[in-house]
Every structure is written in C-alpha cells, then in structure tokens.
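Consortium newsletter contribution from the modelling node. Members have asked for a concrete example of what our holo predictions look like. Here is one, prepared for the glutamine complex that several groups have been discussing at recent meetings.
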Amino acid sequence: MNLKINIPKTTFSYNHKIFLLTIYNMLGQQVITLKEALTKSRDELELLRFEMESKAKESGLNAYIDFSLAGEGVPILIKDNIQVKGWSITSGSEILQGYVAPYNATVINNLQKKGFTPFGRANMDEFAMGSTTESSFYGVTKNPYGEDRVPGGSSGGSAAAVAGGIAIAALGSDTGGSIRQPASYCGCVGMKPTYGRVSRFGLASYASSLDQIGPITQNVEDASILYDAIASYDEKDSTSSSLELVSTSENLDANRKFTIAVTDNYIAEANPEIQEAYAKTVKVLEELGHTIVHKTMANTKYDIATYYIVATAEATTNLARYDGIRYGKRVEGSNLEETYINTRAQFGDEVKRRIMLGNFVLSSGYYDAYYIKAQKVRHLIRDEFNKIFEEADLILSPVAPTVAPKIGSTQDPLEMYKSDMYTIAINLAGLPAISLPVAKDREGMPIGLQLIGKAFDEQAVFDGALSLEKAVNYTK
Ligand code: GLN
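And here is the predicted structure:
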C-alpha cells in the first residue's frame, strides 16, 4: 500500500515518530525498495530509519548488532567487517571489542557521495569464516523464514535483515559465497562483483585474493543500483581495476537474449528439491528465449580443497596482526609470550582451526604439496570457466546443495566446508555472480540459484537475472 502522509518540514519529535510508526504498522506498510527510497525526502528518510530501528529491535532476528548512523540519506546496513569512521568494527569477534574505525572504507565514501547513509551494523560469522552466522561473538542470527533456521553466512545479518523487512538493502562481503549463500537461504538477492571491481580498502581482510564487497537487496534492480554506487577504481587497493565503469542500472535490459550454460553433472550433489528447481528454471530460461547449452564441470571436491588451502593460508597471514600489541584487545600475561597467547585465545574455535590449517599448508615441507598445488588447481578452475565462456554468456548453478539448515545442526566443520561447493570456485576464478530466489521447498524455505558471468560483465549478470526474476515472480 502506498501511504501519502503530509510530512512536516521540521525534524520529528520522538512522540511524533511513534505516532507515525503506529499508523504505518496499522496499514501493514512493507519496507520500500532501494529505488523507491531514493525518491524520498530527508524527513521521510528520517522516519524510515526510525521505522527500521524500531522494527529491528522488536524482530528477534538478531540481525543488527548496532544502530550507528553516518549521514542522512537512504539507510544501508553495513556488515561488521567494513570500516565506517567512528563506528565500532569487530568482524563479529571478541578480540576486536572496543576497536573504533579510524577511517572510512572506500565503499562507504562512495555510498555517501551517492546519497546513501551507512546505518546499523550487521551480524556475521567471526572474521567472515563460516556459512551459518553461528560463530559470531554476538550470537546467532535467525532466518526470517523460520526462526529455528540459520540465515546462512557469513553475511547472515545482512541477508536476514533485508529479507525480514528491517533493512532496505545491505552490504556484505563474499570470499567464498558469503553474500550469495545467505541471500539464497533467506530468499533475497545477493551479488558478488568481479574481483577488483569494488575496492577492498577498509574491508577487514579474510583472504585477500578472494574477498569482494557486494550488495544484498530485495530485488535485482536494487542490486545493480547499489553495485553501481560502490564500484570504483581505487588507488588505495593495489588489486583494484581501472577498466572503464559503465552504469549497469541505467542500462538494465530484461529482454536481452543470452546463451546460458547448464552443468548437468555438477548439480548431482544438490538435494532433489534443488535439482527440481534447477530443472524448472532451465525451462523458464528456454521459454524466455535464451539459448541453453549443456556443459560439464569438474568434481566440486577439488574446488573445496583448493579454496580451503588458499583461504586459510591467506587468513593466517591476515590475522597475525591481532596479537594485542598491534591490533586486538590485549589480555595481559606475565610475559610477552603469555600476552600473545592470552590475547589470541579470544579467537573462536572456527577461526583457530583455520589459523592452524593455514599455518600447516604454508609450513616448509608442506608448502609445495598443498599451497603451490592449490595455486595450480586454481588456474585449472579458471581455465575451465573460460572454456565454458567461449560458448556461453552466463552459467546457471545452484548456490548451495540444501536450503537453510536448522540452527545447531552444522556440527562437523568438514560438512560445513562441503556446503560451500557451489560458490567458492567463482571466487577462485574472480568472476561476478548473482544469487536470486526461484522457488521454495516443501517446508516453505527459499531456494536460490546463481547466474555466473564473465569477468567484468556485470551487465549480463544483472540483465539475465532480471529476466529470470520477472519470469519467476517469487513472492515471500
Ligand atoms: N563459507 C565460506 C568460508 O567459511 C565462505 C565465507 C565467505 O565468503 N566469507 O570460508
């Protein structure tokens, strides 16, 4: 329902806001899209932020961990690993309690220039390591489709808030699926840009050669708007691309026809309902006039092994700085070594596991057998994608082998790593991909699929996703 309220020019009093909020709630007003929000006045946006905060506090999803504000524009929820000057930034960890960001990440400066306002901190898995948001210092975030389910991870707070109607849009980070997988588990849209398109300056590094910041939104068009706002060349990020940037949202075209590769052998590991949703989606794409080509992809077990070697090796190096001397909440011991040990004992189990794994694969004697080998396989994975892209513009793939699991059901770390089988190869190859909801399983949990594009062809990714979104017409 579209509400027309005469908004007074002055800033609202608290009671006035409560009054307006009650009217909104009585009329069952849905959260507006990012596109609509960009047309609102300053006062309307103030009311909107108040509405978000009030609803988030009532919701019980535990998606927000803080409600800080930086500006007066359209509110964007920010994952707890992206620096916003003056805000606490903790990467969901105990070790960073009390740390305040001294500067803005480049994406935050970009957002502010375009009329957006960082608003609120989203919960996440500790240091973005995880697939369920259960490893956060702030406790688990719940899935709006079922509060006994995880929202996915690591950007679980961002996805749960957007899907739960308590954020208009959010930023997440994707090292091995952490934007696309939670979006898929929560029934919203999540997009990972090409490596180098969005600056990593001010993003707490997990695995620097894989990390990318990207949008989590209610629909594909909003994702392209938010992607356009954050993408830029940045001299402060040595891996940033200077390739010319063209607005994707201004050129969105749902009628373009693509050649889309489907990988029949590759989807065999997904559960039957996801395979069914995949098959239906292939039909929809055909009916839309896209050309389908059948391709094969190597076993996903190589992707998992390669990713967990590369990611943990880089994580070990990146997390060395949290020692209580350079960074991190110091826990004093009777000597320096004990201080290091006490301080680093604040890391959670999953982070410790990865630090150990990373040190192992980098240690002399194992370096060639694991790390160097993984780098070689990474090239093979990239070649495999390139080969498919000689014939296809896009690839359709599952995002995860299952829908969102129950909270507490993912006990075995190896099982959790395996659930990343469909997302991590895209990061290893540095490609852009978007996850969007296409169906629900028998219990009403969302199923998402992803469209993967050629490097720097975000336009095709958004256009293909828009055509699919319109045809599928997914509703909450
Ligand atoms: N689940 C993967 C991991 O734990 C991906 C995380 C991410 O993309 N940040 O490493």
